[in-house]
Amino acid sequence: MIHTYIKQLVEYGIDNGLLEPCDRIYTTNILLDMLKMDAYEDPGEVKKIETPSDLEETLKGVLDYALEKNIIEEDSVVLKDLFDTKIMNALMPRPGEVIGAFWEKYEKSPKEATDYYYHLSKVSDYIRTYRIERDKKWVVSTEYGDIDITINLSKPEKDPKMIALAGTMKSSSYPKCQLCMENEGYAGRINHPARENHRIIPIEIQGKKWGFQYSPYVYYNEHCIVFNGEHVPMAINRAAFEKMFDFIRQFPHYFVGSNADLPIVGGSILSHDHFQGGNYTFAMAKAPVEQEVVLKGFEDVKAGIVKWPMSVIRLNGEDSGRIIELADRILHAWRGYSDEAAFIFAETDGEPHNTITPIARIREERYELDLVLRNNITTKEHPLGLYHPWEEFHHIKKENIGLIEVMGLAVLPARLKDEMEELKAAILDKKDIKSVESIAKHARWVDSFMGKYGMVDESNVDEILQNEIGEVFKKILECAGVYKRTEAGKEAFEKFIRYVNGNI
Ligand SMILES: [Zn+2]
């Protein structure tokens, strides 16, 4: 069978434009070497790899062979991922070829270039589409619009043995992090993913070298990462706004946003300057301005407060320079702003709390920038953060509300998938949820909504659970909003706008 798998892979490479037909013998021989084989017999006609699951199946065949021959020492997802990435790289064009093809297409249109590169990132198995397809996704309608929910199942869970093994490894500073340029082509280790089949598009941002790539976990369509060519920490400042607009000018069909630059309200990688973008319209982008405001001296920039559970100021105009200027002044004002009555403190004990999650896009040929006001203060009642998912919602999510959530896509922990199945069974069996240890934490929540629905049975229980998770996520976003959607919250928000006007 191994000869069949080799042929299937080589033909797959040719069919998907990774290889030329004249690369057939060369690539076959490279694969033979990786599999420690010294001869090849053409198996004749083989089944084509046409879908992601076909590719998964063929790679599984190769991995089983490698395990049997001791080329892979142990049946672990970590070791198998390291090996099949190396196999896929044998089918890949070199970076120079990919970069050349990208910019040639870019000449015609940026969209053609990104279409090509996104396709390449998937067929190369850098994005493991067959895993992404296992993610659970649904949409919940709320008064703020249609909110996306996903339970991410595509990040492989490491087995305890590999975690233990990784713990004994010498720490390495190469590459410095998963966002560094040096990941391109890197074979990986037990504690660092293999990136041999990864190709980075070098771009220029504000005259500096940056990289453009897709996220291997694609939380939404064409989820891309734009990252500094150097391993330098991220910061939200005027330069960040300038970089973001520089990117969307080059890729006008993409939005781009940044996580905030403080713990609790920021993302998971603060150590490497980067943005995330993509080709997707989130609920927040669709949400309308519910109250226009005028910022003194910037009457040419439309400004308003967005109808959204978090506190968002939207700027829109023809001149990106003017938007950047105004955004910088709002940021500056916010960094130093305290309002005791609204429980907003710029700092406590010398620790700064105020920052912004910014998102830039082009809308109908005008530039637009959403500034989401953030504060990472903790209190005795909310030790993980006051503007963070409150404890009563931790049974659904307790992780940070980062850029992606802010925009209206809940990324929920993998554990919820099994818990939802157990909850469903318990509800249908009319069991006392409190008495089932693994799901007891959901008992109060289930009690709170069961009365709303008359009949709960097999036909509607999934939908009810999904909707109620959406309701919880909406409340979590409201927790993260520094100004609550009450009369008092609205007045406090207006007070901040007046403060900005007083300081311009
Ligand atoms: Zn780095």
Explain what this protein looks like in three dimensions.
The strands form 3 sheets. Strands 3-4-5-7-6-13-14-10-9-8 form a 10-stranded antiparallel sheet. The chain is built from 16 helices and 15 strands. It folds into 2 domains: 2-131, no CATH class; 138-164 and 202-410 and 486-503, HIT family, subunit A. It is an alpha+beta fold and 504 residues long. Helix 1 (2-15) runs antiparallel to helix 3 (52-68). The termini are far apart. It is globular and about 80 Å long. Strand 3 and strand 4 (208-214) form a beta hairpin.
Sum up the structure in keywords:
globular, binds zinc ion, 3-stranded mixed β-sheet, HIT family, subunit A, single chain, 2 domains, about 500 residues, 10-stranded antiparallel β-sheet, alpha+beta
Name the overall outline: globular
* Strand elements, count: 15
Rg for CA atoms: 25 Å
- Average residue-wise pLDDT: 95
Instruction: Examine the secondary-structure arrangement and name the CATH architecture of the largest domain.
Output: 2-Layer Sandwich
The helix count comes to 16
What proportion of the residues form beta strands (DSSP E)? Answer: 15-25%
Which cofactor or ligand species appear?
Answer: zinc ion
- Head-to-tail CA distance between termini: 72 Å
Low-confidence stretches: none
Main β sheet profile:
10 strands, antiparallel
Short structural summary:
With 504 residues, the protein is of the alpha+beta class. Helix content is 38%, strand content 16%.
Task: Describe the secondary-structure layout.
Layout: H1 2-15, H2 24-34, H3 52-68, H4 77-89, H5 95-108, H6 110-123, H7 129-132, E1 136-142, E2 145-151, H8 160-168, E3 201-205, E4 208-214, E5 224-228, H9 238-250, E6 255-257, E7 274-278, H10 283-286, E8 289-293, E9 302-306, E10 312-317, H11 320-335, E11 347-348, E12 351-352, E13 354-363, E14 366-375, H12 403-406, E15 409-412, H13 415-428, H14 443-450, H15 461-480, H16 487-503
Parallel strand pairs: 2-15
Antiparallel strand pairs: 1-2, 3-4, 4-5, 5-7, 6-7, 6-13, 8-9, 9-10, 10-14, 11-12, 13-14
Helix pairs in contact: 1-2, 1-3, 5-6, 9-11, 11-16
The chain binds zinc ion.
The site of zinc ion (ZN) has 6 residues, from loops.
